[in-house]
């Protein structure tokens, strides 16, 4: 009788090997993402442009390189124009908003100081003199006033530094954009030859599983991103109309900022509306505060009314699992982890649908990714 089970030892070693390869692939992607992300974006753009390139080739008889160059020029022109229009509008109004915030902070600080030295408040201090010393209370109020002013100034400084850093990042962004455009051209121009080469390198059965995974990823990720952008655009539009009705200045820029914030899962438009309404009530602007509190449920109802139509049931993500992955990503990686959690769930779901986990388990148990052929009948 053997001292150990050879089959069990082989299974253990295969399991260790699968674990090493999986962890190595994850680490390679994690540390190499900063280097390869322009080429991933280029591949994505080439994939998105491919229908237009084929149309120009087949219908208008363009050469491949001309069709690719025309598609890139069209996409680039549309994106550049949109960025220019939005950036010009948002930056110009952002400076006005920063100035208004600074004026508001100064106004609040002066109001607190005036109220602190008013006869009404001094009378309240006298009434509390039996239980609290006026010195301690005055010191606390002074610190509180100073903290509010310091926090407000810090927020304004942070916004200013963010805008400054964004401007300084523009040269690097230009270089990255050029690299992405060149890579997009080369990938799209050689799309057919690259597809043929990949088919020759990968076995047919493996290619079928990869096709299922890529198809599910494309369907789920693009469906989720497209649906999220559409819903955030609807949110920004309703927010913009509501701000116009309330007579708010710079409604366009504030609505765009609200739409961007709404893109972040688990946060959304209440992160802007609720604090704004509270400060409006503190200022005594009951009309604006009440209007914002009315606008909030209108936005939520409109968004939830469109969600089933926009998302549908085609994405195929379990709502409970999505919530778990969102929370785990947020807890582990912060705001970026929210998007990482969504992508991780989509990838795992796609791998499960393609039976990748079943095939890997079969490899660990039998040494083959594919089922053993039945013995030939005698």
TrEMBL record:
Q: Where in the cell is it found?
A: Membrane
What Pfam families is this protein classified in?
AI-2E_transport (PF01594)
Membrane topology, as annotated: Multi-pass membrane protein
Annotated GO biological processes are: transmembrane transport
Q: Transmembrane segments in this chain: where?
A: 12-30, 36-53, 65-86, 167-188, 237-257, 263-279, 286-306, 321-348
UniProt superkingdom:
Bacteria
GO CC terms for this protein?
membrane
Q: Which UniProt keywords apply?
A: Membrane, Transmembrane, Transmembrane helix
The similarity annotation says: Belongs to the autoinducer-2 exporter (AI-2E) (TC 2.A.86) family.
**Which named protein is this?**
Sporulation integral membrane protein YtvI
Organism field: Paenibacillus thiaminolyticus
The major lineage groups are:
Bacteria, Bacillati, Bacillota, Bacilli, Bacillales
């Amino acid at each position: 009788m053997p001292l150990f089970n050879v089959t069990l030892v082989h299974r253990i070693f295969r399991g260790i090997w699968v674990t090493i390869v999986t962890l190595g692939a994850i680490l390679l992607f994690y540390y190499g993402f900063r280097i390869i992300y322009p080429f991933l974006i280029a591949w994505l753009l080439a994939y998105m442009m491919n229908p237009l390139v084929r149309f120009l080739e087949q219908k208008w008889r363009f050469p491949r390189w001309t069709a690719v160059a025309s598609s890139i020029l069209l996409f680039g022109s549309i994106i550049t124009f949109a960025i220019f229009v939005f950036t010009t509008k948002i930056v110009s109004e952002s400076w006005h908003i920063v100035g208004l915030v600074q004026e508001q902070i100064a106004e609040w600080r002066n109001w607190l100081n005036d109220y602190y030295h008013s006869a009404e408040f001094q009378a309240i201090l006298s009434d509390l003199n039996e239980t609290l010393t006026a010195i301690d209370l005055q010191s606390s109020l002074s610190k509180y006033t100073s903290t509010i002013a310091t926090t407000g100034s810090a927020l304004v400084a942070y916004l200013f530094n963010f805008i400054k850093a964004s401007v300084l990042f523009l040269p690097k962004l230009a270089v990255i954009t050029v690299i992405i455009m060149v890579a997009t051209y080369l990938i799209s121009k050689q799309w057919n030859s690259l597809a043929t080469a990949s088919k020759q390198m990968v076995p047919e059965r493996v290619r079928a599983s990869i096709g299922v995974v890529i198809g599910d990823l494309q369907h789920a990720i693009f469906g989720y991103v497209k649906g999220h952008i559409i819903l955030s655009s609807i949110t920004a539009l309703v927010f913009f109309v509501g701000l116009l009705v309330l007579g708010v200045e710079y409604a366009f820029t504030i609505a765009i900022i609200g739409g961007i914030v709404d893109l972040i899962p688990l946060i959304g438009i209440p992160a802007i509306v609720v604090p704004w309404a509270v400060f409006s009530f503190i200022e005594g602007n009951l009309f604006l505060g009440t209007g914002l509190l009315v606008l909030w449920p209108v936005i939520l109802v409109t968004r939830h009314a469109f969600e089933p139509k926009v998302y549908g049931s085609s994405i195929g993500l379990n709502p409970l699992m999505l919530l778990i992955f969102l929370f785990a990503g947020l807890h582990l990686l912060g705001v970026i982890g929210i998007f990482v959690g969504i992508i991780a769930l989509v990838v795992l779901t796609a791998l499960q649908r393609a039976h990748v986990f079943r095939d890997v388990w079969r490899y660990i148990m039998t040494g083959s990714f594919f089922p053993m052929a039945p013995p030939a009948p005698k």
